[in-house]
Amino acid sequence: MPKMKLEMEVNSRKVVKETDTHKRLLDFLREDLNLTGTKEGCGAGECGTCSVFVDGKLVKSCLMPAAKADGAKIETIEGLARPGELTPVQKAFHKTGASQCGYCIPGMVMAATACLRENPKAGIEEIKERLGGNICRCTGYTKIFEAVEIARSVVAGEAPADVLDEDEPLGESYIGHNVRRLDAPSKVTGRLKYAADMKLPDMLQMQVLRSPHAHARILSIDTSEAEAMEGVACVITADDVPGKDGFGVFVHDQPIMARGKVRHVGEAVAAVAAEDLVTARRALSRIKVDYEVLPGVFDSEEALKPGAPAIHDYAPDNVVKHIPVRKGDVEKGFAEADLILEDDFSTQQVEHAYLEPEAGVAYVDADDVVTVISPSQNITHHRHMLSDIIAKPINKVRFIMSPVGGGFGGKEDMIYQGMLALAAMKTHRPVQLNFTREESLIASAKRHPSRVHYKMGLKSDGRITAVEFSMLSDGGAYGMSSEGVMRKAAILSCGPYEIENLKVDTRAVYTNNTPSGAFRTFGGMQAQFATESMMDMAAEALGLDPFEIRRINMMKVGSLTHTQQALKTASLDRVLDAAEKASRWEKGAPKVRGATRQDLDGPDTRKPCTLGSRIAAAASGPEKGETPAASAKAKDNERVA
Ligand code: FES
Ligand code: FES
Fold this sequence. Notes:
Layout: E1 3-10, E2 13-20, H1 25-32, E3 51-54, E4 57-60, E5 73-75, H2 88-96, H3 105-118, H4 124-130, H5 142-155, H6 184-188, E6 204-210, E7 216-222, H7 224-228, E8 232-236, E9 261-262, E10 268-274, H8 277-284, E11 288-293, H9 300-304, E12 319-327, H10 330-336, E13 339-347, E14 359-364, E15 370-374, H11 379-389, E16 397-401, H12 417-427, E17 431-434, H13 437-443, E18 450-458, E19 464-476, H14 482-492, E20 502-510, H15 524-542, H16 546-553, H17 572-582, H18 614-619, H19 628-640
Parallel strand pairs: 1-5, 6-17, 15-16, 19-20
Antiparallel strand pairs: 1-2, 3-4, 3-5, 6-10, 7-9, 7-11, 8-10, 12-20, 13-18, 14-15, 14-17, 18-19
Helix pairs in contact: 2-5, 14-15, 15-16
The structure holds FE2/S2 (inorganic) cluster (FES) (2 copies).
């Protein structure tokens, strides 16, 4: 590999190092200097996790070739404060709890530092604007902005430095008080090691060959050329699996790597472990796979039709799971109704987009224990599945959960840990796999796209007499968490409303789409979207206040849930009261409120977001004859240029 010599000052230390010419500044910092506080979230200049200072300017290091930084002064998150200390910005992030998974936080701290260096008196609008290039998927920005404002007040001398150290008095309980997170200092300093930050001696890098086809039979895989390459330690395929090759949270239908056929674009077919990433990537192109493309099915309704391609032999009807719930007499309930409403609701596939792409390390320890380190949200289950897959007793399999840089359910399904274990077993060396953002998008499970057909019967006073709820969800190529998602969707189907007569069916089916899996609410969101929409439509049809129709039907103490459990406590009345008050709801049946709405732009409500135009508009007003919006856009363009 062609080399270059770089000389630069990094965190006030002179660095002279030979490195590969293809490296980005981000790679040089992380791989050559072990400064892993700078994270890679997207690798495409979108998320800001890789922000560093280059000659005093905030730069996204994933976009900068390392060669361009030759001779520059670099400052990373590790260099902001002296060892053991925190800067005012870092202290403020700690104080306000402005870090959840923490993966975005080093980048946020760098952007906040840049903001206050450029303008120590920056107002909240400018702070928001200057942090606009950084994405956080979990903290929710409010705490982050609050932290920067507190730090600004200290830096500008408007508040004493010790406000950053002060805490609310706790009294006798932690409950109801702000308590500092114990793990925040390691996050605001970039010291916390996520799986991709870990380095073990003699570690190999893994890359995965993925299917270009949605549905195809694998006729042959020839790995000989890749295996013969210098620097390649091993190539693995389904043939290397010694045990029962199937995993999944409920049905174990997914092989570690495609076995016999591929069922979705992006499915792992083979993997290479090599001395370095470039060699591993090159080796992928030397693996020859012969496919026979099969007809695919990409729509959940099509998948149920007679004659549809069967995705798995064990399920010729393509049904992953059907959950029926029955209560009362639905026919009788509809016969008693004064009004029957019927409609369809659909929700789309959703990507979790956690900022930390999937990553992991595996090794075999001195006692022959196969150890996997990964941000898994279900390590005990993963450990048991892996023990069957690699045919080792459970005491010879160890899972260590690395810090999870955002999961939202998406790291509950095991999709790559098995490959790491197999390669570590084959080479007896540590192996690391770090997904790119593209790989994370193509290979990880998504929220189930769902269609709900809803039928609701009501008396004219708003009381629901019967519901028929039928949900069809696209489970994608493998079962993963589909069964659990369908169970939860069925249980929550008709919301927190007492309904005497109901007929609920939730079904997940196989298709050749990317598998669907766990995602926050586990099917509840899709069901509630339909139910709450139906409630609003019913209120409108009956001329009732939307809050009122919910109060009429809400479950109370003693109510029987859809699955016949008697409730011992219930709080929906208080939730509705609080929501009505907080939203400044104007009582009455739904109507277009327009400019008369009390719930928008009032005191304590958020202003509409106009991010991107405020600073430009404030810096200079519109040119003569130019609209304010056009002026702001022109200024934005100047900044981009
Ligand atoms: S902006 Fe560089 S990793 Fe996202
Ligand atoms: S704390 Fe920001 S992405 Fe998790």
